[in-house]
Specification:
heterotrimer, A alpha+beta (about 350), B mainly alpha (about 200), C mainly alpha (about 575), B: about 200 residues, Four Helix Bundle (Hemerythrin (Met), subunit A), about 75% helix, flat, C: Cytochrome C Oxidase, Chain A, 15 helices, globular, disordered N terminus
Chain lengths: ~350, ~200, ~575
Amino acid sequence: MHRLSSFFSNRSLGGLFPRLALAAIWMPGNGPQATPSIMAPASTPAHEIHALSYFVLSVTGGIFLVVAGLLTYAIIKFRAKDSDWNTEPAQIYGSTQIELAWTVIPVLIVIVLFLTTARLIFAIQDAPEPPSALNVMVIGHQFWWEFRYPSFGIVTANELHVPLSSDRSQVPTYLSLLSADVDHSFWVPQLAGKTDLIPNHPNSTWINPLQPGMYIGQCAQFCGAQHALMLLRVYVDTPEQFAAWVKNQQLPAVEDPSVIAGRQIFETQACINCHTIQGTVATGRFGPDLTHLMSRQTLAAGAMANNPANLRQWIKDPDTFKSGCLMPAMQLSDQQLDQVTAYLLTLR
Amino acid sequence: MSAIPAIPPAYEGEWRTPYRGKVAMFGLIIGESAIFTIFVVAYIFYIGKSLSGPTPQQVLEVPIFITICLLSSSFTIMLAERALARNRLGGFASWLGATICLGLIFLGGTAIEWHKLIYGDGLTISTNLFGTTYYSLVGLHATHVIIGLAMLSLVFLFTLAGRMGEQHAERFAVLAMYWHFVDAVWVVVFTVVYIIGR
Amino acid sequence: MAENSLPLPGSIDLAPERESTSSLVEWLHEWVVTVDHKRLGILYILYATFFLLVGGAEAIAIRIQLAVPGNHFLSAQVYNRFFTMHGTTMVFLVGMTYIFGFANYIIPLQLGARDMAFPRLNAFSFWLTAFGGLLLYYSFIGGGGLYGVGNAPDVGWFAYAPLTARAFSPGHAIDYWALALIVSGFGTVGTAINVIATVISMRCKGMTMMRMPLFSWLLLVVSGLTLVTITPLTAAQFMLLIDRYLGGHFFDTQAGGSAVIWMHFFWIFGHPEVYVLVLPAFAIANEVIPVFSRKAIFGYPAMVAASVGIAFVSLSVWAHHMFTVGMTSFSNTFFVLSTMLVGIPTGIKIFNWLATIWGGKIRFATPMLFCTAFLFQFLIAGLTGIMLSIAPWNWQLHNSYFVIAHFHYVLVGAIVFCIFAGFYYWYPKATGRMLSETLGKWHFWLFLIGFHVTFDTMHFVGILGMPRSIYTYEPDRGWNTLNFVVSSGGIIQGIAVLIFGLNLVWSYFHGRGAGNDPWDAWTLEWDTTSPPPPYNFAQEPEVRSRRPLWDVKHPEDPDWEYEG
């Protein structure tokens, strides 16, 4: 059990961030796992919440044991015996002392819980951003995620890459949260609590991931028909992996002459109204940026694996996978579908 | 047999409970106050937040005259209540009529103001946040004035038909409570829209 | 005893038995035009029970869809309509109607009154509420709108803006949602006003406010709270309709409007609403637990004070539903504190009930079985509520299945269990027949098991990261088995409720005769026949204490010697 109270008792703004990160490494680190459990934290805010949750659980657990114990005792001990239905028990109308006691004790418990909670609220919400932090803009759409890295000039979708952080080299990622349409919520349980994306109401949150790997999350505020398939992947990359990823994302789209037919179909259809492919005439922003589509492992915000068959079927009829999503079926012929798919498959 | 305690009276003195009509109207007023509060909160929240269009400073004129009329009608209805309680039906009819007239002047003034805003200034409920919150709040209040005037007119008709008497004084007092509430709401709306919001 | 003006047990019915010569049409007509609080109470309760089955069917459909990942039992669109309608139905058409049904039936009887303060308003309010519910369900057929887009509302019972704007919800689904609830809201306000006027103005001689049965006290508090709870929702729904039809911008984020202000308005309604729903459950427990423990309620003044305190403090906690919305740390901290504070009077009530049982002689008839389970379940629900009030932990738990588990623990584990207790307790009074104890015990144990299988498990799937409002989930998240278990519990609960329905019907025809006072209870409703005559009491009662019938049954040891 970690002594949060003494740890946070010396809260100075400048030193707060390293303190939080330091606390995190005391706890056994969790790697990424298939089940996005809130009890398997891998990043500083999630670690802090996890520690507080154990404290609260022990308090509420204690209350439960005492009260439920008394209730159980009472319903067994004071059960009417069959022979005993003729007389009434002593009538007790109240007792000021007992009632005072059982008012004061809950008040004290509330004070303790409140102070512990208040400290952590300020620690997480008002944690000052260190200069080494990476800034990413997250824009929620129905039903996909747009990610922009202003410092690198990168735009991508649905799969967020962030650098690994550690106590020696702190590189937290600060996410500013916006929405293009309705309310969404960014939730990757192993990395942090969720924060909502609300139109006309910019929010921000931060993560400080301490173990590399891929973390699962999904939109946590009902946003319409396909809210359930607005999934989220966060890849926590080692510095080398991250640098390589950034370098690739900064390149314009691959120009492979063998798929020119597919490219022409793409550029003459309505595709370009919604999608962007860097270095081409496609500059639409309603749908995900496809410049490096094949660098992603899933399609349609995690709805299915990114493979040729799924990609072709998605373009043919999105409703197969995500009925109610906002991409229309493009009514392409089989040959056109083959060509466009072949083109998109080159966009690494 | 053990001693049975002597039975005390159920209650010392006369057993009286409040008049249910007043209690009910009080409840209605609380509920309606909550509705108005939400519209007032929305109005205050959106002050200065319109992205375009006419602002309150540009188009609103403080409606002093109709405000005086409406607030005076609280006074006249109180005099009507008193007259009815003393069975002075002529006085009752006069003061009730005066209340209705003052209410109608208020509504007329609102209509004129809205006409100017819509056709003169181009401010409608869909123009901007100010338009939306202004027409909703003032309109909600005006609706309550209309309902109040309808009830008062009904009573006025009963008076003309000779069917009102001092036995109805308690019930009329309930209606008067509603009318006072409508006036009190106007004080709040007036302050928020024409004083704070400008 | 001749001087004793307390009504004698088994009051003489001075009016002769009326011959029943009416045809079916005349009988139906009587029920449609009735203004008798007992009949209106029964109409409310029948209406609520019907929609309990409808809402329950929606829940079962939801759980079948979620029993396995990637299921195709319900499409995404149909699922979204079902979970929206399930929530809306259960809160407005089941919860509120049961509450006002019980209130209508019992309050005048407990107060020694002849009827509610405004019988015609009572009838009008019922029919408004009923019509509102039918309007809501008509949306399944009539919500199509232009080009057939639309149907039943599919935006969640909380209907967050701007998803409800015309741009994102074309068709008329949202309009049905808003209008139905506005209409039924007017009915709710009417009944609330009626209850307040009845409790304040219609008490019989000697029944001061501090001698009223706690059921009536708590329903007074609930009605007062309702007046300031439902009305913000009505206001917000008017604003939504203004946005959708008159081009307003209340929640139009493109015009500078705020999506967050909808949340504030909704939860200013939504949070006190759950206290409106739960306080009547406490009210029922306050009647059942003392009678079946054979002891007066422990700390009557504290129970009154706690209830009033809960009502006031509950108006200050609403934004604990909005901890993830991006409020300042100061605001979040404030709402943590207010939420924890409202837990204190609520917890105290559990202690008072414990102290009532303590030293008693508990008889575990079916009403008491349900109330005993209620005590444990409400304790757990309150504790998970405290967990959710911890804002940083809330940032993980919000909108996950942990929250759904918590609020169903309150709504089902506390409220439905107490409603069942109330049924078993007062059904004899309303019909003159006892409900079958055998079927009652089957009902209780099956429902208890089903409830725990479903809702205990549900806490864990939330902790494992499963969000709410999703029509399906990925198969590799580790949620599969837990979801299947949750769904099976739902089936068990469904069977239990069917047994309950069977009990209601069978006992009406074959139940043991109840007499005036089958439970040996102490409040005035047990002092008249079962069912009571239309005028309730042959003579207006006079009371000298909180338990007038105790005083009659124990003249050597009356309550008025001990009450301050």
